[in-house]
Amino acid sequence: VYHYWRDPKFNTNTFFNEINNLDKNQVKVHQYGGRAGGPIVLPGFDGRGKAFFFLNFEHLYQPSSATRTRVILRDSAMAGNFTYGTTTRNVLALAAAAGQTSTIDPTVLSILNRIKDVTTSQGTINETASANFNQWVYQAEAKGNQYAPTASIDYNFSDNHRLKATYYWQRFTSTTDLLNNSESRFPGFLNYGTQNSYRTTGSISLRSTLSQNMVN
Question: In sequence order, which ranges of 68-190 are alpha helices (DSSP H)?
């Protein structure tokens, strides 16, 4: 039986988290399991020297966070004021002067306001050289679960014939998928990816020593 344990309380913070005033990334790992094996002994059946089993179980539970950087609009750009080189123009006013739509689409405006609410309530906003954009640094979160039980049975019909059966059952889930940067673009948004792996593998083999020079 074993248990591997990782926790932020055992570590120092990273350099870039420190300069962005962010806490430690909350990467926690609980990887535990156990294995057992031996002869198969049941009521009315004594498999010692003939029938054997092996079982292994492992569970990896990993809630994690990773530091991410997003590009966000400055308040001036949110109001329609965009700077190109040394020239600043209000694109909404230019649209109005040209007889075009001069208001922000309400759906787009709603999304931009949600982004602003999120970025001003957590993480760190860093100034950039751009007159239109800033950078927002935050910590994305996810939770991983991995189950991997395995079983094996060996049966010796005789000294020359041995049957072996194995079975492996794998269930891996990761919500959201930090490994492939598939978490929500901003916390609370609905667009995110998960990584799931469902696999089973089984095998049966018969090994026979047919003669001194022939093995199947």
Answer: 75-78, 91-97, 106-121
